[in-house]
UniProtKB/TrEMBL annotation, chain A:
It comes from Chelativorans salis. InterPro entries: ABC_transp_permease, BCAA_transport_permease. Keywords: Amino-acid transport, Cell membrane, Membrane, Transmembrane, Transmembrane helix, Transport. This is Branched-chain amino acid ABC transporter permease. The lineage of its organism: Bacteria, Pseudomonadati, Pseudomonadota, Alphaproteobacteria, Hyphomicrobiales. It is a multi-pass membrane protein.
UniProtKB/TrEMBL annotation, chain B:
It comes from Chelativorans salis. It comes from the Bacteria. This is Amino acid ABC transporter substrate-binding protein. Belongs to the leucine-binding protein family. The keyword Signal applies. InterPro entries: BCAA_transport, Leu-bd, Peripla_BP_I, TAT_signal. Signal peptide: none annotated. Keywords: Amino-acid transport, Signal, Transport. Residues 34-378 form the Leucine-binding protein domain.
């Protein structure tokens, strides 16, 4: 009976955790999965978003609402980021993976140091009424600080999927990654489209930051914990698939939670990569590669 | 050209004066130059939360200089940023010794960074004060090393023994141990297991978790399933927060009456503020708390002066954990130098080995390898924490000392009873 309880709780916790992982990975699913820009600064931008949310939360604003408000200025920051990247690298023919990695790694460090200088290195958290409480369904208990941010994910995933699949701009974002020249011929400015996509990804980062800081406190270096996992989720899902990102994240979340309950917690961080390696060996395009 | 005997004598005298002049000048200059004390500190990087240690050094330096300096010479503090990276530390200490020619050294913060320079300190026979470094001199046994923190002898495995003393005195028979998968925590957890067995307790669960873990629901459920009476936890700030939230959300069951021990985090104002009443009932280690049994000379004045500087620099506003011990580290030097009237490292070290030192963190005696002769790691229990205001922790009664008995300031309240308040 105890084993069954543990298993049920592990699966429930894993689904909730996976949803939060998906939110962290969605921005990267656009920049890396669709635009093929290895934006390793994405987790650092998420943490910058979390700090921005903490600032507004001090004035009593709900973190999720704060995240939505901050997503607008972050969208424009994303545009500026991409403009810098396009002018400094792509337009000079230097947009190869190694150079891009170096650039975004540098940006990541700059963001971390800027946060240290501005806010110090103490852990920062938000105040929400539901921390410390759980939703209890029989023997299953799900902490609200995980459940509430996890509930945002399906909504964001649905809206993003709708936008990328059913609107002209969304389709242009997908098209520009496949054939930039063809998009140009069709009268669309590929740089403007990619800039817009990067802006959306950055806006999503701040919403992910809001979710993350509800689950626990953050420090300027907290993004490093998630960097491997979010890349694993995007690749496992299959590059650029938005619903697939949610599914892949939930698979990883549940697997980690089961390993933590029934094996050793020390093995949990390796689960994402174990699943990734096994999947890529059998299905190189990822679990949902080709599904849009 | 021929040189007469008289000319040769004049030339020899002039050459002698010329050769001796730099030495005479340098000696005179050395007698006037400041007494230099140097160290590295983690001003940036993952350990930069400890950078408030510098305030402790600075206040000590200012106090010594205001009182006329050391042997009439001004004290100069030289601090370099080690960026929290062990690889940076050896070069910094070589520079401190060979280029800056410091007279005394403090170690960087903690055992990991300090491990890189202890062989150097011993090889160069340098006086060095350990800043919260655990067991850094146990192997080398350098006779000019002195520990600023109260880990006591056998600190590596015994620093948290007070938690098990409390467990034993309250009749705990079933102990669970949870520790981050890092060297410091693993050593403490293994030490905890040994002490548990020594007391005849059954270790019903022993779990390690990766330090990046932030969800403890599954782990806490596993612990609860074993129905422990006490849970010894060795964790770091972010995981400590998640664990405290976790026991509130999932629950530990009715059997648990003692929880905590080796959690890093609930010593820092930012976490105390964010966790607030969730901390009630947790018994955890600390180095200093403002309880009536800890009224050492100078500590209140130190903390009063620390506070505005900390607020200005955006570091821990309470400053109970590290800064007083950095001030005390400076007091080791100033007390011994004034007592011996010498800057000679051997004389100063010998004096410290033979005499007690009065500091802002109490009177300290050192053993032959520079550890405190008595363990004075406090086991405090959070009681009656109300709301998230940080000022409440400046008053007595919120972090009540349960162990060691000489500093006890209140009675242990069973975990669940304390959490109801």
């Amino acid at each position: 009976m105890i084993v069954l309880d543990l298993a049920l709780n592990a699966v429930a916790t894993g689904i909730v955790l996976g949803s939060i992982y998906a939110l962290l990975a969605l921005g990267l699913a656009i920049t890396f999965g669709i635009l093929h820009i290895p934006n390793v600064a994405h987790p650092a931008i998420v943490i910058a978003g979390a700090y921005a949310v903490v600032v507004l939360n001090r004035f009593g604003l709900d973190p999720i609402l704060a995240g939505l408000l901050w997503s607008i200025p972050f969208y424009f920051i994303g545009l500026a980021f991409y403009e810098f990247y396009a002018r400094s690298f792509e337009s000079r023919g230097g947009g190869n993976t190694l150079q891009s990695l170096t650039l975004f790694f540098g940006i990541s460090l700059v963001i971390e140091i800027a946060l240290v200088v501005a806010y110090g290195t103490d852990l920062r958290s938000v105040r929400v009424g539901y921390v410390g409480e759980s939703l209890r369904l029989g023997t299953v208990a799900i902490p609200y600080r995980f459940l509430v941010p996890a509930l945002i994910t399906p909504v964001v995933v649905f809206l993003l999927w709708l936008y990328l699949s059913k609107t002209n701009t969304g389709l242009a974002i997908r098209a520009v990654a496949h054939d930039e020249r063809a998009v140009s011929v069709a009268g669309v400015n590929p740089t403007a489209i990619k800039r817009h996509a990067f802006g959306i990804a950055t806006a999503l980062a701040v919403i992910a930051g809001a979710a993350l800081v509800i689950t626990g406190p953050v420090d300027p270096f907290a993004g490093r914990i998630h960097i491997g996992r979010v890349f694993a989720i995007v690749v496992l899902a299959g590059m650029g698939t938005i619903p697939g990102t949610l599914a892949a994240a939930i698979i990883i979340g549940v697997a980690e939670s089961l390993v933590m309950s029934f094996a050793s917690p020390s093995w949990a961080p390796g689960v994402a990569f174990a699943i990734l390696l096994a999947t890529l060996a059998l299905r190189p395009t990822g679990l949902f590669g080709g599904v849009r | 050209m021929r040189i007469s005997r008289r000319q040769f004598t004049k030339l020899s005298a002039a050459a002698s004066v010329g050769l001796a002049a730099p030495a005479i000048w340098t000696k005179g200059r050395a007698q006037n130059r400041p007494v230099r004390v140097g160290c590295s500190a983690s001003l940036t990087g993952p350990l930069s939360g400890t950078k408030n240690m510098v305030i402790g050094y600075e206040l000590w330096r200012d106090d010594v200089n205001a009182a006329g300096g050391l042997l009439g010479r001004e004290v100069e503090l030289i601090v370099y940023d080690d960026q929290s990276a062990p690889s940076n530390v050896p070069a910094i200490y070589s520079k401190l010794v060979d280029v800056d020619q410091v007279d005394f050294l403090f170690t960087p913060y903690g055992a990991n960074l300090t491990a890189t320079i202890m062989p150097f300190a011993k090889q160069r026979d340098r006086f060095i004060v350990g800043i919260l470094t655990l067991a850094s001199n146990d192997q080398l046994k350098h006779d000019k090393f002195f520990q600023a923190a109260p880990w006591g002898p056998d600190g590596a495995t015994n620093w948290a023994r007070g938690f098990f003393d409390i467990a034993n005195s309250t009749g705990v028979k079933k102990m669970a141990i949870l520790a981050a998968d890092t060297e410091f925590s693993k050593t403490a957890a293994e030490g905890g297991r040994r002490v548990s067995e020594e007391f005849g307790m059954d270790v019903v669960d022993f779990q390690m978790y990766p330090p990046t873990n932030r969800d403890f629901s599954a782990i806490i459920r596993n612990i609860r399933a074993t129905e422990p009476e006490a849970v010894f936890v060795c964790s770091y700030p972010a995981d400590s927060t998640a664990i405290v939230h976790g026991i509130q959300e999932i629950g530990l069951g009715d059997s648990a009456r003692l929880f905590g021990g080796g959690m890093v985090g609930p010593q820092y104002a930012s976490l105390m503020e964010s966790l607030g009443p969730s901390l009630n009932g947790i018994v955890n280690f600390h180095l200093y708390v403002p309880e009536p049994t800890m009224k050492f000379e100078g500590i209140e004045s130190f903390l009063d002066r620390y506070r505005p500087i900390a607020e200005d620099r955006q570091v821990d506003p309470l400053g109970f954990y590290i800064p007083p011990f950095c001030y005390a580290a400076g007091q080791f030097i100033s007390t011994a130098v004034n007592a011996t009237g010498s800057l000679d490292q051997t004389e100063v070290s010998n004096w410290l080995h033979e005499n007690p030192v009065d500091t802002v963190v109490g009177q300290i005696n050192f053993d032959e390898i520079g550890n405190w002769t008595e363990r004075r790691v406090l086991m405090i229990q959070f009681q009656n924490v109300d709301g998230s205001g940080i000022d409440q922790f400046r008053q007595a009664g919120k972090e009540v000392i349960i162990d060691p008995p000489d500093y006890k300031s209140g009675e242990l309240v069973p975990l669940m009873d304390a959490r109801k308040t």
